[in-house]
Fold this sequence. Notes:
This protein has one domain (2-122, 193-264): 3-Layer(aba) Sandwich (Rossmann fold). The protein has ten helices and eight strands. It has helices spanning 39-42, 68-82, 94-105, 127-142, 145-156, 163-173, 178-188, 216-223, 241-244, 246-264, and strands spanning 2-6, 9-16, 20-25, 46-51, 87-92, 110-116, 204-209, 229-234. 43% of the residues are buried. It holds the Pfam family Abhydrolase_1. Residues 21-244 form the AB hydrolase-1 domain.
Amino acid sequence: MAYFEHEGCTLHYQEYGQGEPLVLLHGLGSSSQDWELQVPVLSRQYRVILMDIRGHGRSDKPRDGYQIATFSEDLLALLEHLQTGPVHLVGLSMGGMVGFQFAVDHPQWLRSLCIVNSAPEVKRRTRNDWIWWAKRWGLARLLSVETVGKGLAERLFPKPGQADLRQKMAERWARNDKRAYLKSFDAIVDWGVAERIGQIRCPTLVIAADHDYTPIQLKERYVAQIPAARLAVIEDSRHATPLDQPEVFNQTLLQFLAAASTSQGSLSPC
Length: 270
């Protein structure tokens, strides 16, 4: 375990393997533990770097600083601390939002970008958007983190054969700090950089589960706006694709990373 401090917040990170630096960012209410099925495979070829986003895992849970842009600046501080140079960046869900923010703010720090089950904005534009937000906002505040964790695990891992995974993830998510979780949830709502994603020039892969919260068509629309992006759909998967389809996910990511590294040769800004 290792720690560094950025603007008064102590953040936890881990490193595995050697090679080109590869950063994995987790989603809302999760931690770097959720990449446990990726690290052994990816670290054979890459220097894998995991960070617990502030408010999550072993990182501090401060009273403020919960914005996607702040999470992105925390990541930049870590890369400067480790002197990595440009990295491959993979972000799941909220981690993907941080990835989008980082890509438009700090393109020179990216070799490639992989977005998993995420979007470049979360805007409340329609009546349904407001209903979704109000329901999630209310339940998150009324229910305990244990109840939220159990419900989430049941939704994401519903198969009989996923009982062990379902129980493990419910217990893991139940350890969330509720105040930090709620502040991170609020950071997502009305955030967006969709108007800037056309600036992203590095090789970009968007991975979409066929049963994700948002439809594949939404991913297709924003992928079309990114010059060097392509979409990969993983079947029989829900929002936590690295956990419910690890073999397919790992192979899809490794193929993309190999192609990204080959195509770049000498690094140029993202």
